[in-house]
Amino acid sequence: MMQLKTLMPPPGMTLFPTLKPPNKTQYFHQILVLSLTFIAYATFHASRKPPSIVKSVLGPEIKSLSSGTNFTLTSESANGTTGWAPFNGTDGPHRLGELDLAFLLAYSAGMFVSGHIGDSVDLRIFLTVGMVGSGVFVMIFGFGYFFDVHVFGFFMAVQILCGIFQSVGWPCVVAVVGNWFGKDKRGLIMGVWASHTSVGNIIGSLVASSVLGMGWGWSFVFPGMIIMVIAILVYMFLVPSPGHIGLELIGNEEVEMHIEGVALVESEKIEVEEEGAETEGSVAIGFLEAWSLPGVAPFAFCLFFSKLVAYTFLYWLPFYIRHTAVAGVHLSHKTAGILSTVFDVGGVLGGILAGFISDTIEARAVTSALFLVLSIPALLFYRIYGSVSMFLNIMLMLISGLLVNGPYSLITTAVATDLGTQSLLKGNSRALATVTAIIDGTGSVGAAVGPLLAGYISTRGWNSVFFMLILSISIAGLLLIRVVKNEIEEKLKEGKWFRFSFMSH
User: Fold this and answer.
1) How far apart are CA 149 and CA 86, in angstroms?
2) Does the pLDDT of residue 503 top 60, yes or no?
3) pLDDT score at 384
4) Sequence-distant (≥ 6) Cβ neighbours of residue 93 within 8 angstroms
5) Of 163, 175, 197, 132, which Cα lies nearest the Cα of 445?
6) Chain-centroid distance, C-alpha 196
7) What is the spatial distance between Cα 344 and Cα 255, in angstroms, rounded to a whole number?
């Protein structure tokens, strides 16, 4: 018996035949895939930023106490005359944290499901659906301003549905990039590529902050429109794997696919005939089987705590800046939102640097642990000295962003891809999205917990919040001890580090 499997090229390749091989090389399509997935996931993150930008507008007006460690609500906010009901009362920070929790728990739960689905469907179509759905619900949240909605349940429901659609993005883009690139220099390539997270945060912050004066609803409408426009490009031109356009990835070479002597390049529908039942490589890996793969569990739980810290900054940094005097001056809502992008600029640098270092020493866990250890004093210095002057605030925020986002970026990209394509899978090409979803899905649970805890703990003072962040970073580092030990022993046994040290001199 023969089994028929059909791989459909994107519509853009039909409209523009010159984009297909042999007119365009594998290298061209790799750049196209990197660019489209970069832009796509940047818009996902841009559409997540509005809640953090509008927090200080929706919530109660807060004045810091002279000690700088606690704050109190003003009499106006306590009476509900500022902010936006139902977030402007004394429980406003709690409710804002609960909104973050609703989004991120839905995102985390959806991640596990989306990853498994992503191993079984056309990633281009699945990603497009996720982008369009995300854009729709981000805009609907903003409509709450225009239609004067003050029902907490409305905002909660919208965030849950938005989180489900957002969960589609990450497993899809990582799987697509993994399909197109081998392991050589993967850390550096993905370190550069993974800066889409921080770039998206920067774009989202700038867009949402720039229109905040028009009304907070516009801070949601514009990012929602942007992601829907990019979804059209993804649908038209994203090629999920080389096989969709008749290429087979072998190292850094490109060849036409031939199955039983039949060339497939020129066909718009590439039909691949395989003998017998489904091969091992065509069956999506089981959820529990993926968890049992070496390295998946420790990196997944490490990401839980790393992402807890990263997302606390993502959702609460503009609020923190707004209500913490810098050189004795409280910044405006707009200025605080724009200034918070410095943390994400550091994130771009951190992702690239972590990827480069991990490729150089060929040790992902060691690199991640190094960044985690260094981020502890960085956060302490930012909390203690960030309010002294604007210069110190910017520099310490930049360094904190670099060190916090370095391991987060590395684990969610190069590490996840390495684990999803390791030799123990015996050629199973459909395990990558599942492994990626497990790692980032577990991390997303931490991402849900962090902002919620910050909403509650911040009412007791920001020192308590930073203590929570430092404790989380410490636990993340401890979870990697065994993996770090194994990496070091392996490299010393192979003698690679000795050779590197000798060559460097």
Assistant:
1) 9
2) no
3) 95
4) 59, 60, 455, 456, 458, 459
5) 163
6) 8
7) 40
In this structure, what are the phi and psi dihedrals at residue 110, rounded to the nearest 5 degrees?
-65, -30
Q: Are 346 and 85 in contact (CB under 8 A)?
A: no
CA distance 341 to 327: 19
Tell me how far apart the alpha carbons of residues 88 and 83 are, in angstroms, rounded to a whole number: 5
Per-residue pLDDT at 487 exceeds 80: yes
pLDDT band (50, 70, 90) for residue 175:
confident
For residues 32 and 177, what is the distance between their CA atoms, to the nearest angstrom?
11
Mark 69-84 as b/e (b = at least 16 C-beta within 10 Å): eebebeeebbeeebbb
Ramachandran quadrant class, 166 (left: phi over 0; alpha: psi -120 to 50; beta: rest): alpha
How are the residues of the chain apportioned to helix, strand and coil, as percentages rounded to the nearest 5?
70, 5, 25
208 — pLDDT class (breaks 50, 70, 90): very high
DSSP calls for 441-505: HHHHHHHHHHHHHHHHHGGG-HHHHHHHHHHHHHHHHHHTHHHHHHHHHHHHHHTHHHHHHHHH-
Task: Return contacts of 262-265, CB within 8 angstroms, 24+ apart.
Answer: 265/20, 265/21, 265/22
Token pair of 187, please? 């850390």
What confidence tens digit (pLDDT) does each residue in 210-259 have? 999 999 999 999 999 999 999 999 999 999 999 888 887 544 444 333 33
End-to-end Cα separation, the chain, in angstroms: 61
Do residues 273 and 2 make contact, with C-beta atoms less than 8 angstroms apart? yes
Give the span between the Cα atoms of 333 and 348, in whole angstroms: 24
Confidence at residue 430, expressed as pLDDT on a 0 to 100 scale: 55
- The answer, as to whether pTM is greater than 0.85, is no
Average pLDDT over residues 306-322: 91
| Predicted confidence (pLDDT) at residue 382 exceeds the cutoff of 90 | yes
| Of the candidate ranges 88-102, 244-258, 384-398, the one whose mean pLDDT is the lowest | 244-258
Question: What are the DSSP calls for 409-449, one per residue?
Answer: HHIIIIIHHHHHT-GGGTT-TT-HHHHHHHHHHHHHHHHHH
What dihedral do alpha carbons 143, 146, 148, 149 form, nearest 10°? 0
- Tell me the C-alpha distance between 11 and 232, whole Å: 11
Confirm if 151 and 141 have CB atoms less than 8 A apart: no
DSSP 286: P
Hey, is 9 helix, strand or coil?
coil
Q: Are 33 and 238 in contact (CB under 8 A)?
A: yes
Can you read off the two tokens belonging to residue 445?
A: 């649970």
Q: Is the pLDDT of residue 431 over 80?
A: no
Range ranked top by mean pLDDT from 240-254, 398-412, 484-498? 398-412
Among 138-147, 171-180, 326-335, name the most confident range: 138-147
How far is residue 475's CA from residue 477's CA, in Å, rounded to a whole number? 5
